[in-house]
Amino acid sequence: MSDTLLTNARLIDPEAGTETDGALLISGGLIARVFAGPPPADTGAAVVDCRGKCLAPGIVDLGVKICEPGERHKESFRSAGRAAAAGGVTTMITRPDTLPAIDSPEQLEFVSRRAAEAAPVRIHPMAALTKGRQGREMVEIGFLQDAGAVAFTDADAVVTDTKVFSRCLTYARALGALVIAHPQEPGLTGGAAATSGKFASLRGIPAVSPMAERMGLERDLALVEMTRARYHADNLSTAAALPALERAKAAGLDVTAGVNVHHLTLNALDVGDYRTFFKIKPPLRDEDDRLAMIEAVGAGLIDVISSMHTPQDEESKRLPFEEAASGAVALQTLLPAALRLYHAGQLTLPQLFRAMALTPAQRLGLPAGRLSESAPADLVLFDPDAPFVLDRFKLESKSKNTPFDGARMEGKVLKTWVGGREVFAA
């Protein structure tokens, strides 16, 4: 692979928290040098003029659902890989909520092999925490870790048996494994399709109080305090849950938390007249919650912004709101949606890429997410000001269930590199 020099770039460095004009040299799949200002003329590398656009570490998307095995008609490794590359996502951390669930080394080996064959970006799979994601029997955490699982989660299936969950945390602690949970109180959330309040009542939509999230998180954090396990709450969405998270971090627990980009950019009123593309899990929250989550990301209390990419076919979405499947595709909309916060003056570009690239990579022990020498040359070049109207049928994903269909957005990915190899060019 020949050396490549990316010149005339606006470097977004989430590690230093800076935006600077400069250049970057790629050699052997790694970042060889970072230049402040113009580079020397004698590097001998092929030159790519970035024309003053933003160059940032590729996004590390924690919590992507790829529907292999079981529902390949919704999303495959090939289609998800193309969507990721087009969205500036260079690493996908995939969920185990497939059919069947990824709960054995053999299944993990299958998805790892398929990913390597079909996807142009890096893929690191997570494994289920309990067999079949049924919350009754712990998986073989050590064997799955040896097979390449980067974390363990039952995704949106809450382990309701506290003894089983505490046993999982204890074993994970002994092995240094990361447990990722979706904190909710399932007795309250069962059957709910919206957040409780006047809007849900007027629309007649079954709803749940935001307190269900706080109750689930409080339980999880109590068990983390007892077991001292490594824990990540994957999809917080309410202001009510933040004080518990803040106390846990202040107490020195090894705890992090993430937020879905939809909960940062949409609110409960966007459901409008029962638009099922806006049905996600947890449901969209009130505007006060949305603003609280943005503030928490800016303060570093919320560590990770992810897409929670969840493909659903037309048949599962074209149903009455209460019956429709939850979830949205978001690999290609993660960056332009997040840039709404930048254009609104709520978060800076280094803050966004800290949450979308640096912190998820650090949490999983990956070398990605940095613009520094010897880091992998996983990069995205984008124009944060380029306007467009999103057409869902132009997305690379097989499923087209995005709440941003027809929305006016700003921010286009121009090029994506993985290990110094160009995998997307607009």
TrEMBL record:
The keyword Hydrolase applies. Pfam families: DHOase (PF12890). Its EC number is 3.5.2.3. Residues 52-236 form the Dihydroorotase catalytic domain. GO terms for biological process: purine nucleobase catabolic process; pyrimidine nucleotide biosynthetic process. Transmembrane segments: none annotated. The keyword Hydrolase applies. GO terms for cellular component: cytoplasm. GO terms for molecular function: allantoinase activity; dihydroorotase activity; metal ion binding. InterPro entries: DHOase, DHOase/Allantoinase_Hydrolase, DHOase_cat, Metal-dep_hydrolase_composite, Metal_Hydrolase. Gene3D superfamilies: Metal-dependent hydrolases, Urease, subunit C, domain 1. It comes from the Bacteria. This is Dihydroorotase. It comes from Psychromarinibacter sediminicola.
